[in-house]
Write a structure and sequence with these properties.
Elements (H helix, E strand, L loop, with lengths): L4 E11 L2 E8 L4 E9 L3 H16 L8 E6 L3 E7 L3 E3 H6 L6 H20 L12 E4 L5 E3 L8 H9 L12 H6 L4 H17 L20 H10 L11 H8 L9 H7 L2 H9 L3 H5 L3 H17 L5 H14 L5 H17 L1 E3 L2 E2 L2 H11 L4 H15 L9 H16 L7 H23 L1
Antiparallel strand pairs: 1-2, 2-3, 3-5, 4-5, 6-7, 7-8, 9-10
Helix pairs in contact: 3-6, 3-8, 6-7, 10-13, 13-14, 13-15, 14-15, 14-16, 15-17, 17-18
């Protein structure tokens, strides 16, 4: 190994015939992932050299870049971009299922990455949650581990020699049964992975269980897309990742009157319509329509359905911005609920709060008029009442501070000023505890 690299995690991951080590490049001051292989025989050496060539040929935003390849007498190393984030398997295991917006974003990016690799005649062959990395802000998805990616001729050769490379449950049936492989094989695995990310379970392609029937945040068109992906016959299956992307982007209808949406549509369609509105446009809707939306949120908040948590957050992110002109009690409910769901709610094992919702709260606090400022400042103080700040994690205090600062600096601040100042000082005092600990 090069002397410029210092090991951070020597047991980061094993799989795909190799071991991945996370290291720091002291010269370029960046983390890198090093894939390492001991040559067991000539076949393994040839295979790893082929992997390096495959990776080097792929240059796409949602595929980690290869930086360098290094050889020694007994080992070979591929140095590539280290992606900060969490793999989709961990998200599923924590039951922090994506909202429909997140699923469209993540799988839209992954499908374009696959479309790109297919254009280079490279079939990934192992699309699954473990090989999809989601960035820490949950905005970007990366398709990783092209370590078993081959063109069709490579695959035929390996199959004839008795190798079966892939993951049971995600491998296309034509490969398992006949050793046949095509771009449609990756589409099969992509459909399986999309279904699992939304439900936590694998689908049965012969007796499909609809997601949208039991989860109103999922469009029926998602079920239709998945079913086209997991057709057993590859000829009848959705053929391209590009078409997958186009269908995924068209799953939400935008041409339905708002009054019809409120009575006949699903939650994802209502949310999509609300996203298009300003606070003035929402306030100009009939009172009954506005109250129906508020009541819908109250029901979602009270049930806390595990599969609806992300959808509830997405709806709150929209409503916190467009309900600022509503009646005192209505905006107060949305504001305090947003604080609770932004800071306190667990969306899965060890997954507390939502950073995007907290950012939405910070942004709206800067623009409140005098009436909505009164609601927000009172609501924040009620939220903080009986909270023991010294027991809160660092991120909690870090994101709570700018909310108080935004309220204090708002030119329409007209009430609760001294109380907010006291809250700000208490947050700073608790934050300094982390600085003091680091200095010990």
């Amino acid at each position: 190994m090069k002397e410029r690299f210092k090991t951070i995690d020597k047991n980061f991951e094993e799989g795909g015939f190799g071991k991945i080590i996370v290291m720091n490049d002291d010269i370029l001051e960046r983390k890198v992932a090093i894939k390492k292989l001991h040559y067991l025989d000539q076949d393994s050496k040839d295979r790893f050299e082929k992997e390096a060539k495959i990776l080097a040929a792929l240059t796409f935003p949602n595929i980690p870049a290869i930086y360098d390849v290094d050889f020694s007498e007994k080992e070979m190393f591929i140095e590539f971009q280290f992606i900060e984030g969490i793999n989709l398997r961990e998200i599923i295991n924590k039951k922090a299922y994506p909202s429909i917006d997140e699923a469209r974003r993540w799988f839209g990016q992954i499908s374009l990455a696959l479309d790109y690799s297919h254009s280079k005649k490279i079939i990934h062959r192992d699309v699954k949650p473990e090989n999809i990395i989601i960035s820490d802000d949950r905005n970007t998805a990366f398709l990783v581990d092209f370590g078993i990616a081959f063109n069709s001729e490579d695959t035929k050769s390996l199959k004839s020699r008795g190798y079966v490379i892939g993951t049971p449950g995600y491998i296309a049936p034509e490969y398992v049964e006949r050793g046949e492989l095509s771009n449609a094989s990756d589409i099969f695995s992509l459909g399986i992975t999309l279904y699992e990310s939304l439900t936590g379970t694998l689908p049965a392609y012969d007796t499909y269980s609809s997601i949208s029937d039991s989860n109103e945040t999922i469009p029926p068109a998602i079920d239709d897309l998945i079913k086209r992906c997991i057709v057993k016959d590859p000829i009848s299956r959705l053929q391209s990742a590009r078409e997958f992307n186009e269908l995924l982007n068209s799953v939400i209808r935008m041409d339905i009157p708002f009054s019809s949406l409120l009575t006949d549509a699903r939650l994802y369609e209502i949310q999509a319509a609300l996203k298009q509105m300003s606070s003035e446009e929402f306030h100009n809707k009939p009172l009954g329509q506005r109250l129906l939306i508020i009541s819908r949120v109250k029901d979602l908040v009270s049930t806390k359905n595990q599969y609806m948590l992300s959808a509830t957050v997405e709806l709150l992110k929209v409503l916190i911005a467009i309900t600022v002109y509503e009646e005192y009690d209505d905006f107060k409910f949305i504001f305090i609920t947003s604080l609770e769901w932004g800071f306190e709610i667990f969306y899965g094992d060890n997954w507390q709060g939502n950073s995007e919702l907290r950012i939405s709260i910070i942004n709206i606090c800067k623009k409140l008029n005098s009436e909505s400022y009164k609601v927000a400042s009172t609501g924040l103080l009620e939220f903080l009442k009986n909270k023991i700040l010294d027991d809160k994690p660092k991120w909690y205090l870090h994101d709570l501070r700018p909310i108080v600062m935004s309220l204090l600096s708002n030119p329409n601040a007209n009430i609760n000023i001294r109380e907010l100042q006291s809250a700000y000082e208490n947050i700073n005092k608790s934050s300094h505890r982390y600085t003091d600990i680091n200095e010990l």
